[in-house]
Amino acid sequence: MSHAIQDRPVAVSPRRPLSHARLPRWTPAAIAAGSIAAGIGIGLGAGWTSKVQWGLLAALIFVLATFAITTKVEGVRQAKDRVATSLIWVAFVLAVVPLLSLAWVTISKGIEALDPYFLSHSMNGVLDAEAGGGVYHALLGTIEQVAIATLIAAPIGLLTAVYLVEYGGGKLASAVTFFVDVMTGIPSIVAGLFILATWNLILGFGPSGFAGAMALAILMMPVVVRSTEEMLKLVPNELREASYALGIPKWRTILKVVLPTAIGGITTGVMLAVARITGETAPVLLLVFGTKLINPNPFEGAQSSLPLYVYEQFAVGTDASMARAWAAALVLIAFVMILNMVARGIARWKAPKTGR
Question: How far is CA 210 from each of CA 157, 287, 303, rounded to the nearest angstrom?
Answer without folding.
Answer: 19, 9, 10
